[in-house]
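Long-time lurker. I teach an intro course on protein structure, and each term I like to show students one example going from raw sequence to a predicted 3D structure in token notation. This year I'd like something fresh instead of my usual example. Would anyone be willing to generate the tokens for the chain below so I can use it in lecture? Attribution to the forum is fine with me.
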Amino acid sequence: MRVLLCCVLFLAACATSAPAPAPLADAVAERIQRVESGLLTSNVIAGEPLAGMPLAERMRFYDTPGVSIAVINDGRIEWARGYGVAEAGGAQPVDTATLFQAASISKPVAAMAALRLVEQGRLSLDEDVNGRLVSWKVPENGHTREQKVTLRRLLSHSAGLTVHGFRGYAAGEPVPTLVQLLDGASPANSAAVRADVVPGSLWRYSGGGTSVAQQLMTEVTGSPFPELMRELVLGPVGMVHSTYEQPLPVARAAKAATGHRGDGNPVAGKWHTYPEMAAAGLWTTPSDLARLALE
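-- Reply from a regular --
Happy to contribute to a lecture. Here you go:
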């Protein structure tokens, strides 16, 4: 049995390491070329030929120093590549392991962790979150008298909570705790998160609501948010380059792309820090996000 197992493993290793058949490799190369040289506008004129634009030319046009791409085809990551540099005027190339701030893509990844806690019986989708929150609670008012803020409503942006989004904290600025942020207390640069309509009465995008979900998850698990995200989602999915650590540790910063303004100039201090980790704190790569999409 041991010999058979060794043979199977050897054959599997050989199959894995063998180069792709030439026709397949050629087909992938052709698809890569179509992306690199054939970008299309969002609108086309009927009857007019489609004129593809080179990726490199579009990067120059939009003052974009670096781009990272991962492509899923037939249920797998078919190819991934980096283009340009991690900072305008720099020499560090973007590759498939270069970290980018994911902004609001952080939210659905955080939602997966919340749903895993529901699967484990540690959270409920439909109970009043104030029943589980300890160090901070959603302030009660007339809007929450009959309808309550629930995890389902937080994740679906229908909890009736304020604060659309966050701008983060520049290098050198004091960073608030999550409780300070939820209360809009100094040094927070955003307003307090409060219910200003009846929960469940409408859909309205709320990064504030996602931050309440972050507070809920950390209190229920007793774990720092980056750690619980690593244990519940990033690790199991194989998102080996990704993290919710804020600020980004020095060891990871060496592989991070610098943020840039619309005019192409680097952000002072390279990037902002987001204590609103669930809403905006994910650092990741396209390949890691592709792994999540395939999960």
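Some talking points for your students: Residues 1-18 have pLDDT under 50 and may be disordered. The chain has eleven helices and four strands.
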